Amino acid sequence: MKNNKLVMIPGPTPVARSIQDQMGRETVSFKDPQFVQDFKELVADLKNLWETKGECFVIAGTGTLAMEIAIANTTKSGDNVLIISQGFFGDRFIDLCQRRGLNVDVLSSQWGDVVSEKELETKLSEKKYAVVTATHVDTSTGVRAPIEEYGQIIKQFEDTLFVVDGVCATAAEPEYIDEMNIDVLLTGSQKAFGVAPGLAIVWAGPRALERRRSFGTIPDSYCDFEKWLPIMHDPMKYYGTPAVNLIWALKESVRIIQEEGLKNRYARHRKEAEALQAGLETIGFSILAKPGYRAATLSNVVYPEGIDDVTFRKYLAEEGIVVADGIGATNGKLFRLGHMGNIDKHVLVSTLAAIERALYRCGYPVEFGKSVGTFSKMLFE
Ligand SMILES: Cc1ncc(COP(=O)(O)O)c(C=O)c1O
To answer: Which of 7, 59, 64 is the best mutation target for the ligand 1 pocket, counting ligand atoms within 8 Å of the beta carbon and taking the most?
Structure first.
């Protein structure tokens, strides 16, 4: 008998049955009164849950589109932008901003580490920036940036807006938009929301909306807040066809989040990630991200000496778990394990057990059950 394959990459994450059912519904007109009502409720719930006095946009597209939207509405050609980068996705803002004629400065950390608050403060004192970007969790490193602390610093610099990429964080890592001085938070549907890929979700606080209004007409149309705002207020209106079934799927995801409680969801992710990471460390792996800055959403798991990446991931897939390879310089040295969204402890225990079996098949000395034991024990600590 063949094993079921669990997709434990850092997105798309496993999609719960009730969310899949929404995607499988008969597609209706986007002017269907019930759909319009559902869309309206979804936008209102997203605004309330993430605690902003601003607006929320749900638009067909991926996380990268959400990044474009954030920058298109908060900058104009010739502006200075400071990019805080903890890896590959932080760096993605560089090209995206340069193509828009922005003057880009970058604060980078070693992969696995973070840019310090001091470095940020110094840089902001040297030059006036229209926008600072940061990636809450960089998927290439598994590092969680100190967003709240960055926000406190940026707050001291009037007219500098704070854009946060939450693609690998939102709905799993704490994010309180207004309280954390975030002006734009952006994410996608396929990670901690546990929906299939295809929706860009963007929250814009009052200062970001004001910045956009101050520009008049901008070169972008699909990315323009002003084009979408009437639809987010009244989805009976039209600009671009809404992704009807994905919107229903996201609504079901938000219902699941409300049932769990967003704060409980944050606590679950944190507790299980720490237990999982400790379990992996007891069987010879190490975690790339420094303690204190490890994401609750994914782990970048460094191989012990002598383990071949391709062979390990092949055996692991045969044992029923699909993980992702390392990006850039980490390729071959680690695998990336997603552990976010609507997954439970059964899935995590199965994942650890399969990792032990794959390690054993690689000829590495394994005490079966060791990582699982550590994981279960830590859930009670
Ligand atoms: C942190 C981060 N930002 C942005 C993106 C880009 O999102 P997408 O692939 O949905 O365009 C990703 C994708 O994995 C990501 O992890």
So the answer is: 64
Strand order from edge to edge, sheet including 324-325:
286-287, 298-302, 334-338, 324-325
Q: Kindly report the backbone phi and psi dihedral angles of residue 142, in degrees, each rounded to the nearest multiple of 5, phi listed first.
A: 75, 20
Q: Kindly list the structural domains of the chain, giving each domain's residue range(s) and its CATH number in brackets, ordered by start.
A: 6-12+262-379 (3.90.1150.10), 17-260 (3.40.640.10)
Q: Measured in angstroms, how far is the CA atom of residue 77 from the centroid of ligand 1?
A: 24
- E strands present in 217-365: 286-287, 298-302, 321-322, 324-325, 334-338
| Residues 221, 82 contacting (CB under 8 angstroms) | no
Whether the ω angle into residue 12 lies within 30 degrees of 0, i.e. cis, is: yes
Say what the pLDDT of residue 2 is: 77
Query: Which phi and psi angles does 170 have, rounded to 5°?
Result: -60, 130
Alpha helices in 99-160 (DSSP H): 117-126, 147-155
pLDDT tens profile 273-304: 999 999 999 999 999 999 999 999 999 999 99
Q: Is the CB of 188 under 6 A from ligand 1?
A: yes
Q: State the DSSP code for 84.
A: E
Question: Which conformational region is residue 241 in: left (phi greater than 0), alpha (psi within -120 to 50 degrees), or beta?
Answer: beta
Averaged pLDDT score across all residues of the chain:
97
CB atoms within 10 A of CB 48: 11
pTM: 0.98
